[in-house]
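Replying to the earlier thread about multi-chain prediction with a worked example.

Input:
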Amino acid sequence: MDGNRRYAKNAGLPLKEGHRAGAESLAKVLTCCYKLGVKDVTVYAFSIENFNRPQSEIDTIFQLLKSRLAYIAYEDSPVKQFHLSIKIVGNRTLIPSDVLADLEQIEESTAGNTAHNLFIAFPYTSRDDIVHSVTEITHKVKSDELKVSEITAETIENNFYYRGEASKVDILVRTSGHTRLSDYMLWQCHQDSVISYSNTLWPNFKFYHTWWTIFKWSYYKTLILEDAETMQIKRITDKEINERYKEPILSLSHPPFASVTKVT
Amino acid sequence: MSSEMKTTELEDSHSLENGFSSGASQDLVYNLVQQQQQELKEIPPTDSSNRDPVPDYSNDTVYTTIYNLFRNLIWPQAALKSEEESSPSSESSVSYYIYHSILVFFYLLMSIYRFYEYTYNRTKLRFLNLAYNPSRAPSLINSDVNKLPKIPYRISAILNYKSEQEENGGVEGLCNDASEIAAWCLSSGIPNLTIYEYHGVLKKHVPELRRSVYRKLVAYFGTSNVPTYRINIPHLNVSYAGSFDDEYPSDQDKFDIEISLISVLDGRSTIVELTKVMSHLSKTHELSEKDINLKFIDQELQQLVGHEPDLIVMFQPYLNLQGYPPWHTRLSEMYWEPDNEEVTYAVFLRALQKYSTCKVNVGR
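Result:
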């Protein structure tokens, strides 16, 4: 969610209005995603680096986020019909205690829903996430829950703030024309994910943009699947391989040998 | 040219104090990870089984695209799978086919749009390549770059191994591309180049690369003053100075350009190894748990892999990081030309131009 401030500046609105427009845009995008059948959505609401902003702006963002999430969770909004559960991913120790209490309450009240997940990255940076995971693992090793030899990339993934619920993102959208990741989902999107950089500012990011991003992705995905089918490079499991080649080579028959040397 | 001056605004944002409480433990961790890392094996380029297919934005011709779409219309894979699980009524499968054909119709429109987009992009690239031709003259490149307000201090290029049959393919093609980029970097005054290649082919062909870089630099700068260069492989902790014949004095430690070679091994697996070593050390009480923080891990990864690049240039038709070290992509600007497959100067220069216009806020 990038571009709220520039949106406000361009439209000649106060900064607060920009963030408000961004929060409204979130509901629209979420409705679109869930209607199209996307299971999990993560939004980058607040970076740890954003604490460098003026305190008044931080307060505005926190208030807006709280009220928006409460709206999604409690009111009879269009988003509510999708039975989504809201989860906070990020460094909770940095959230002021009053905001955190409200957020945890929202989290708890939606915890029973399993159809869709809405992850709020708040306050989040990917590097912090990796460090968090590493310290968790170290702690587990120290208390003999985990052996050093068992540590793999999956172990690191399972100890993220996501707690193993999101291993790889299919599409990552960054709005407002910057072509860098800004410490977001570095681990999750650096392998064969589609990263889409949009020039639209976040408050202007509406149904059409969401649909177009997902449509483009599905178009290429379909072509890949069909290509794989044609070229028969589709992954076959070990079981299938064993079934296909179960006959040992010696039992195959062949025509009689005709050779000038002696056949043994 | 003082390139250090121009990077100050970026360096400020993540300036790290070196006041370390446990400098000794840092070295200890580094050495241990280094040892473990050397046992890791690169994935040979012929082995494509452990890579997911990625959106291939340009390899298909129009006919294969349309053929594939029609196959999808007639035998939809997703439908077959879901029907096996829950045998639905004929009514719902009819409505499924109706909706599916609407979707495939949209796909067909999309493929027509893509055809025009592809043609447009290729034509544009052709014109750009004509317009920006360096003709192996450093002065031309330098005058192009000097028009820009700022340039990156560390640049990284993602190269792709092409099969031997293709034009400019194989190890030779890769070495040629790498040395060409090194020459462009030198001409524009960028002192650090990191080359990422998924399979790590270049790491295994250092003699070829050294020779190739030397030849390229002679072609660009003449035989009398060839710039000095050093090729580093952070994963094996080795570095090779100059060309094959080792003409530099052994005490030289300042080079005109530093070229680092990294591969997929420097990504996730390095972080995993680091985690292993740190958790082992903290269990044996050689490293206190308090010391494991962002700054410490950052220092370690800088030693193990290198600094984070300011700009990543991808010479491929679509954006795909291919497992580039995740820790290092934090604030890097990314550049790629849609539908471009070649390593050309136009792409390099346009990446620098793009970089010179962008502003890094780091949260503010």
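Chain B touches chain A through 62 residues (CB under 8 Å).

Feel free to reuse this layout for your own posts.
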